[in-house]
Design brief:
The complex is a heterodimer of chains A (about 140) and B (about 450). By secondary structure, chain A is an alpha+beta fold. Chain A has a 6-stranded antiparallel beta sheet. The mean pLDDT of chain A is about 90. In chain B, the strands form 5 sheets. Chain B has a 9-stranded mixed beta sheet, sandwiched between helices. Chain B has a 4-stranded antiparallel beta sheet with strand order 10-11-12-15. Chain B folds into 2 domains: about 325 residues, Rossmann fold (3-Layer(aba) Sandwich), CATH 3.40.50.12780; about 100 residues, ANL, C-terminal domain (GMP Synthetase, Chain A, domain 3, 2-Layer Sandwich). Chain B is globular, with a radius of gyration of 22 Å. The chains are: A alpha+beta (about 140), B alpha/beta (about 450). Chains A and B meet through strand 1, strand 3 and strand 4 of A and helix 11 and strand 20 of B.
């Protein structure tokens, strides 16, 4: 059910992001979605790729500090208020969102948003009960 | 387990007599054979016959590293080159190296004290010892080598580097003892982890580590990662190489083989001898060396001395682990800072690998200390606030220990150069007139 996200620790200096992108390209990975959380000194690059297990190994072998995190891929109606509706649902049930970012491609007619929450299962339950689709691991990594 | 029970367990009084006899003979020898010593002894108003007790040692002039540089290459040798069977030299990163010489008897002495060192660490004739100290001009490799052969261990003289091959042979040979620098031991444990080696195939049980100062916490870290007993051995090329002192398995400090190497602790600023237990610069007189004897050599290592008996039965004076170097010591905003202090903090937090670098700069008018710490996978979380709090904890703990403000920078693994020899812990960008250069 969860989507596997790869997180990479990057120092805030030029060329580091390019190094990751180059490494993934050279090993034939397709980056499906990404976001960067940055501070003045370092950043955390978050990636959704096809074959995350192998990507994890490739990055680790190249000497990067990497971790795997489970996130939710939530289908959000692609219209004004679509995201707000989903977030309200989670807010109302007291589920805190650590961060979210968007997918480039759509899933059917809907936009796809990646959500990091602590209560993964509960979030899926709440969303599902309200007719919001949470995308399957296999589907998301292959989109 | 002793190599030489008589000398290692000799009653203190008897040893003092032996030391005095050897000291008198040493002073006479250097006075007669080395122009430098004749000159400095005369300048101090001393004649060889003036040494009447061990207390008189405090009147003898010091020998400093500069004296060794100034007399490069053979100026301090006390025997003709015809009797010198070996030379070793320091790496000499700045200018000319320091050259030391050995007669055949010196090589025998060296093998003897290294045999004592290894037995002290629990290495026996049925051990397979992999010597991953550098061989060549550096004294580490050959020093341990001769001692290991003397006790009859099976020696694998692999030298430093090519870590994957080290691990392969370790596995295939069933190596039980490892001799290398502590930072290389740590590096080796990392590569072992990366290679995913089946740990049940590694039979290491003891590590004989030295040639750089390392904290007790780092020792525990190595013990955990390599599953060995980590024994600190101490030595320096100028004195003989490895084999000057060694920890035993009781963890009470390092036994100095003081029938050969007479230690003192002095205040590095004034040169005054300090009583046992007080921290200062270690000074050593080589009582028996023939080719390259030294009178009161200032090692620049900071340590304490202890005379109480050790449960192992050895009666040698013991020194603490080296706490730092007088020339590693950074003076930052008037405060003395040793890299080893930072290392202790990092290991105590347990939230960082002990890979760190101190970068000192002068952002006028104040000195500025930046501590770079590598973030290992073990402590990486996909949350900014987790990393920020890791950085803050490190900063707070270091500031608490040093009493000065520092900046902590979290860096990617392998950013800080891995040493195959000695670890580089400090980058000093300040342009100070009195700055110690290595």
């Amino acid at each position: 059910m969860w989507v596997k996200q790869i997180s990479v620790f990057l120092e805030n200096k030029s060329g580091r992001l390019a190094a990751v992108a180059r490494l993934l390209a050279d090993n034939g990975f397709n980056i499906r979605a990404l976001s960067i959380a940055d501070t003045s000194d370092f950043g955390i690059l978050r990636l959704i790729v096809n074959d995350p297990a192998r990507a994890y190994q490739v990055l680790k072998d190249a000497g990067f500090t990497v971790s795997e995190t489970e996130v939710l891929a939530v289908e959000v109606p692609d219209r004004p208020g679509g995201l707000a509706g989903v977030l309200d649902l989670l807010h109302d049930t007291g589920i805190n969102i650590e961060y979210l970012y968007a997918f480039v491609s759509k899933s059917g007619g809907n936009a796809l948003v990646l959500l990091k929450v602590e209560a993964l299962e509960r979030a899926v339950e709440v969303l599902g009960a309200n007719g919001i689709q949470v995308q399957d691991y296999h589907i998301v990594h292959q989109i | 387990m002793y190599w030489n029970r008589e000398m290692e367990c000799m009653p203190a009084e008897k040893r003092q007599k032996l030391q005095l006899m050897r000291l008198r003979e040493l002073v006479r020898r250097v006075y007669e054979n080395v122009p430098h010593y004749q000159r400095v002894l005369r300048e101090a108003g001393l004649r060889p016959g003036d040494v009447k007790s061990l207390d008189n040692l405090a009147h003898l002039p010091f020998t400093a590293k500069e004296d060794l540089r100034r007399t490069y290459p053979f100026g301090l040798f006390a025997t003709p080159l015809a009797n010198t069977v070996r030379v070793h030299a320091s790496s000499g990163t700045t200018g000319k190296p320091i050259v030391v010489g050995y007669t055949r008897k010196d090589i025998d002495t060296w093998s003897e004290v290294m045999a004592r060192t290894l037995m002290c660490a629990g290495v026996k004739d049925d051990d397979i010892i992999q010597i991953a100290y550098g061989y060549g001009l550096f004294t580490g490799g050959l020093g341990v080598h001769y001692g290991a052969e003397k006790i009859g261990a099976t020696v694998v003289p692999i030298s430093v580097g090519n870590t994957k091959r080290q691990i392969m042979l370790m596995e295939d040979f069933g190596t039980t003892a490892l001799a290398c620098t502590p930072s290389y031991a740590l590096h080796l444990s990392e590569v072992l982890e990366e290679m995913g080696t089946d740990r049940s195939r590694i039979r290491l049980r003891v590590g004989v580590f030295g040639a750089e100062s390392w904290s007790p916490q780092m020792a525990r870290e190595i013990e955990k990662k390599l599953n060995v007993v980590a024994v600190d051995i101490f030595g320096l090329s100028e004195i003989i190489g490895p084999g000057v002192a060694s920890e035993c398995l009781y963890n009470t400090g390092l036994h100095i083989f003081d029938d050969h190497f007479l230690p003192e602790i002095i205040d590095p600023a004034t040169g005054t001898q300090l009583p046992p237990g007080e921290e200062g610069e270690l000074v050593i007189t080589t009582l028996t060396k023939e080719a390259f004897p030294l009178i009161r050599y200032r090692t620049r290592d900071i340590a304490t001395l202890h005379a109480e008996p050790c449960p192992c039965g050895r009666t040698h004076v013991r020194m603490s682990k080296v706490m730092g170097r007088t020339d590693d010591m950074l003076i930052i905003r008037g405060v003395n800072v040793f890299p080893s202090q930072i290392e202790s903090v990092l290991l105590e937090i347990g939230h960082a690998e002990p890979h760190y670098l101190l970068v000192v700069d002068r952002k006028s008018p104040l000195d500025h200390l930046e501590v770079w710490v590598e973030v290992s996978e073990r402590f990486f979380r996909d949350e900014v606030r987790h990393l920020e709090s890791l950085g803050k904890t490190i900063k707070r703990e270091i500031e608490g220990t040093l009493g000065i403000g520092v900046e902590v920078k979290l860096v990617e693994p392998k950013t800080i150069e891995r040493s195959q020899g000695k670890a580089k812990r400090v980058v000093d960008k300040r342009d100070l007139p009195g700055k110690n250069k290595p």
